[in-house]
Amino acid sequence: MSNPELRNQIDPDKLPRHIAIIMDGNGRWAKKRALPRVIGHEYGVKSVRTIAESAAKLGVKFLTLYTFSTENWNRPALEVKAIMALLVKTIRKEVATLQKNNIRLRTIGNIKALPIDAYNELQEAMALTANNTAMDLVLALNYSARWDIVQATQSIAEQVKQGVLNSDQINETVISQALNTGNLPEPELLIRTSGEFRISNFLLWEMAYSEFYFTDMYWPEFDEEAFYKAIIDYQKRERRFGKTSEQIA
Ligand code: IPE
Ligand code: IPE
Ligand code: MG
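That is the input. Now the predicted structure with magnesium ion docked in place:
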């Protein structure tokens, strides 16, 4: 089926507002081709551009990409260094793409602990794109869901200590808002590439009712057609939120 035919199968009224993606398989994609892992990350950037543009054109409002996890610091130092250098290069180069597509760049995660040049580049790109309105592209960088839950708990504890919040006022909304994702809606759809069936410390709180879509494709091969297929699959699901099927109909 061609791209336009697939695209026509997407119901614009049932589009997920927020799609989250665990972009996995860059290393294996490269290994399969006897290339260094870093080349896999470079090709992964192409997929980021394709999917971000496609999502914005479709009318998705938030796209969150798991770009570098807290645990990814444990990789060989050379790979970490190469990923950070690629991040700086990509952001610098792709601001024009963001502007062209009216996309606002945001981040979740502890970006203050990134190398200073990456941090500065991000700040600049976020400032430049701050008024864009088509879609928010949220990069999860030095992010892990447990880190976020810990920092949220600390900030809530601090508010209680300061006397601006009573402990019995702590509810789901208070916790949601204290997370880095506080001003994002919860993702309706999570996509993970590369054939792994796990969450790897991503958006644990926010994905309580997300639909999961897994594909064997490695991230560098994940294209617009594959993206459309994931959305079409999502649109066939019945989201019950604990209710019965009859209550939904
Ligand atoms: C995802 O691809 C990118 C990052 C985690 C930074 P991987 O680098 O995890 O690729 P595999 O899983 O080793 O194939
Ligand atoms: C998850 O992928 C993190 C990102 C995509 C940035 P990993 O490759 O780090 O996950 P595991 O180690 O296979 O669970
Ligand atoms: Mg991986």
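The radius of gyration is 19 Å.
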